[in-house]
Amino acid sequence: MTDILESMRRIFVPIHKEGYPFILIALFATIVLAWLWSPLGWIGTILTVWVCYFFRDPPRVTPIREGLVVSPADGRVNLITTAVPPAELDLPAEPMTRISVFMNVFDCHVNRAPVTGRITQILYTPGLFLNAELDKASEDNERNALVIETASTKIGVVQIAGLVARRIVSFVKVGEALSTGERFGLIRFGSRLDIYVPMSAQVLVGLGQTAVAGETVLADLTANEPARQYRVG
Question: Could you say which residues are annotated as the site Cleavage (non-hydrolytic) (predicted)?
Fold first, then answer.
């Protein structure tokens, strides 16, 4: 019996508690639709399964070497550029490397800490709901900004709401300590994460690369990794 339960646990990915209300709503809607007309019930069932899938929260294996910056989100690396961080981060008004990870509605939306450190700043900014893939979404969209202070520097992490996202959820408070890969928030239904690291950090991902939250290494603050090259194919 124990072996069966363990096998089931490995097959079924855990669901984050933030998803339970939405799953219950989808189930209720499915029952109502099925009562009205059975084919609609099947549509509701598919929607319910998708909601369960969206709020999945699978375990991750996180690299813990000092200096590594791991992806805070599942998705596609859609921008690597140099930019001055948003004023609300209260970081020096000088260029930093910005790595953006875009999450579509099929990606896992639980966000994880990119580094180990202490949260020194959290600021929510209301805004628009433009396509999160657009560069101007960093300044115009609803967002929640965090500053994490490591042993050697500070980095910025910005949760940005997307075209269909309407809620950014934060699990942490100013002053809390985070370990690399630890869950710190969630964005509902399509969005983007911007990570600001010092210009001296070595970027270890390429445009278009798929990132896995808590596992994919985005950059090395100590620049100890060998140089990497990428191709799209």
Answer: 190-191
Please, what sign has the CA dihedral across residues 126, 131, 137, 138? positive
For residue 219, give both structure tokens: 């950059």
User: Residue 45 phi/psi, 5° resolution?
Assistant: -65, -45
Under the banding of pLDDT at 50, 70 and 90, the label for residue 226 is: low
Q: Which of 6-10, 133-137, 138-142 bottoms out in mean pLDDT, i.e. has the lowest?
A: 6-10
Tokens 């990428």 sit at which residue?
230
From 71, 100, 138, 191, the catalytic residue: 191
Instruction: Give catalytic status of residue 191 as yes or no.
Output: yes
**Chain centre to alpha carbon of residue 186:** 7
**Residue 48: enclosing H or E segment and its boundaries?**
helix 38-54
Structure tokens at 168: 């950014």
Looking at residues 99-127, what average pLDDT do you find? 91
Closest CA to 102 of 79, 70, 68, 76: 76
